[in-house]
Amino acid sequence: MPFSWMPRVIAGEREGPKDFPQLKNDTFLRAARGEEIEHVPVWCMRQAGRYLPEFRESRAGKDFFETCQSPEACCELTLQPLRRFPFDAAIIFSDILVVPQAMGMDVQMVAGKGPTFPEPLKEPEDLQRLQVKVDTAKELGYVFRAITLTRHKIEGKVPLIGFSGAPWTLMSYMIEGGGSNTHSKAKRWLYQHPEASHMLLKMLTDVIVEYLLGQVAAGAQALQVFESHAGILGPAEFKEFSLPYLRDIARRVKDKLKEAGQDVPMIVFAKDAHYALEELSQSNYEVVGLDWTIDPLSARERTGGKVSLQGNMDPCALYAPKERISDIVKKMLEGFGTRGYIANLGHGVYPDMTPENIGAFVEAVHQHSKQMIKQI
Ligand SMILES: Cc1c2[nH]c(c1CCC(=O)O)Cc1[nH]c(c(CCC(=O)O)c1C)Cc1[nH]c(c(CCC(=O)O)c1C)Cc1[nH]c(c(CCC(=O)O)c1C)C2
């Protein structure tokens, strides 16, 4: 039995542990599978974030990763946006950098600077510092507990999404030591140390697979894999250093879930990877998330109805007056169509955005899509 909480998952049962409140709004899950819906579901990346005064209040004076380690705090932050807006999904509050931490790296959140690794990986020898076999139940059990608690507290209102960073994005943080414009330290590895790069990407893939499976066992009803730094790679590097690992993650997670009779939709969000849209639509994920640099109609054409699509309004459109947001949403819905589509932003909400405009975005998606579906 690989996970201590595994006995709670009954083989053959689709919804996971039995004692969770029944799901009342499964629109997001149906859209992910391309099934019929009454309105287009909508959620926002970074919907739990600093643009909400209640989020800033809860986070005030507390260390970021300590907050991530508190299931109660993560649950509260996940639920906050749902109290304000009729989102069709929630995403568990956590961070992609908990995985490098679980592998033994120190990561701190420095105010005004963002995530910082005091001792980043510099040369291939540094891989020896990393934990190869990670006991995810021990190192990341706090995330699993946050998911289980949130599944209870969310009362079946909407599905709960679990997530992980993808191997290349995590590798780039581990080598850069934080955010970067050029990612030149991490890219140097790809060109100077391709073998060590693959070794690190493989190590990360193994941990991510276990981590995502643990999230589903804990109660996650969908999974999103964030390849936020895809755009810094060109098509050839993406094909060699990102895509095979993204595919491997989805295949291995799905194979394991199938054995347990579970079916959990997976979303891949490779930011700025418009050059790889065709490949991404054939990479074992039900949903491909899009940033705003891709035109909805051409995304549909290029993915050929093989997958559902998610996205992709420019987050900065939320600075526009509400009527303009409504027009932009309408055009976006007309471009994607209402079937096999999950409305979202093309990236996360920024801290200086007004909650009211997020509300206008959500309302516009629901209103316009209901009308469009009625007319079909
Ligand atoms: C709200 C927040 C988070 N992380 C960080 C913040 C801001 C700091 C704070 O509020 O104290 C630091 C935080 N964490 C990270 C950054 C980016 C730093 C950089 O690259 O410059 C910051 C400021 C790293 C990170 N972290 C994440 C990504 C992938 C998504 C993306 O591309 O934005 C990345 C790249 C994932 C993430 N991170 C978070 C979520 C929560 C759920 C939600 O979306 O509502 C998620 C999904 C939460």
TrEMBL record:
Entry EC number(s): 4.1.1.37
Domain of life from the UniProt record: Eukaryota
Uroporphyrinogen decarboxylase (URO-D) domain span: 41-50, 161-177
Keyword Metal-binding applies: no
Class of this enzyme: lyase
One of the record's GO cellular component terms: cytosol
UniProt xrefs under InterPro entries: UROD/MetE-like_sf, Uroporphyrinogen_deCO2ase_HemE, Uroporphyrinogen_deCOase
Subcellular location, principal: cytoplasm
Keywords carried by this UniProt record: Cytoplasm, Decarboxylase, Heme biosynthesis, Lyase, Porphyrin biosynthesis
Pfam entry (one): URO-D
GO molecular function: uroporphyrinogen decarboxylase activity
GO biological process, one term: heme biosynthetic process
Subcellular compartments: Cytoplasm
HAMAP family noted in UniProt: URO_D
Similarity section: Belongs to the uroporphyrinogen decarboxylase family.
Protein name, as recorded: Uroporphyrinogen decarboxylase
Organism in which the protein naturally occurs: Astatotilapia calliptera
